[in-house]
Prior knowledge:
By secondary structure, the protein is an alpha/beta fold. The protein has helices spanning 11-24, 37-46, 58-69, 86-93, and strands spanning 2-7, 28-33, 49-53, 75-77, 104-108, 115-119. The strands form two sheets. The protein has a four-stranded parallel beta sheet, with helices on both faces. Helix 2 links the parallel strand 2 (28-33) and strand 3. Helix 1 (11-24) runs parallel beside helix 2 (37-46). The radius of gyration is 16 Å and the shape is globular.
Amino acid sequence: MVGVTLLHGRPGITRLFALHMADIGVPWVAAVTEGDEACIAIAKAFAHKYVEIPNDRLDKKWNNAMVLARGMGKAVILGSDDLVSKEWLDYLEDKEFDYALPKATAFVDMETERVAVLEASHVSPKTGRAPRFGAG
């Protein structure tokens, strides 16, 4: 399993992401905005691979990040402020999903340190079935 992310600004949050990924032992790759010296330094220190690229076309930036992940096993797309558990990634490792959502997401206000948790039901109230994403 490899994490794939984009980096642009917010070096404090980027550093937390990098430290968290190191703590749970999951390699990650990143496309970093050209000239963003703080995030480039973090990617150099922590990312398995990274590429510097302009931030003007996010689709191109994501494509470049995904190319870095080739050959590294399953890839999970993470925002540079997404902190996921090792247990969730281990759960996904042997599954055949096109797309997966966590059961809950926590939001942290960095200034007040307040935490809010959003629970996801994974069941559509309209159809009574789990949503389908990606192929199929």
